[in-house]
Here is the input.
Amino acid sequence: MSDPRLTPDPSIITTDQPAQITLPVVDLCRSPSDPRDRQLLFGDALRLLNSSAGWSYVQSEKDGYCGYIPADSHGPAAAPTHKVSASATHAYTGGDFKSPDQMRLSHGARVTVIGQDGKFAQTAAGFIPAQHLMPIDQFRNDPATIAALYLGTPYLWGGNSRDGIDCSGLVQAALLACAIPCPGDSDMQMALGQEATAPYQRNDLLFWKGHVALVTDSDTLIHANASAMACTYEPITNAIARIATQGDGPVTAHRRL
Here is the structure.
């Protein structure tokens, strides 16, 4: 049976056009009346499959997720040249950090640089500090380092940005930044890598029912969790005991990338 998260509904499709997100963060919903399933970031590429009554039915290119977004949250597709490599940044009205900021962009947002003004890159979103960007075709090589950029980020169910993130959103952001394809939800992420056993190694994935965490060393993990309502480090043994005590059961999978 096909997964509706990843399979466009053929009864809805009326077009198939490339598009991209034009707002900092946009909720992706199963239907216009549903809460968010996931989120999309500025510059994320889409397939626009339908647009009516103020909503657009789309499929995200980065992970294949399907859903509805507001029709005013996307625009024509462009070829991004850079992506935000800092945890977050601002786009200013000019190439000066004292100029008004007009947009906050999360790590992973994609932009097209059209010019340079001193230490600022000019984009359609505004002028962004060049040190906060990296070329679109360059990647990091350590997911745990990327995950650390999100430390302290508030927990948000279905969140995918530095403003709010959940467990699978954190893992996806960390892996995509390292050129490792990664689906959006923890049940699908359990297919990543190979089955592993202790001792734990950096960048291993640990799964519970409805939860995933990224190992940072043999004793520690990082995860966005509802216990702290934030992205935090936690000793692995403490996390295993706490999650079992709160009724969510034992570790269900240990995967090595």
Summary: The chain is about 10% helix and 40% strand.
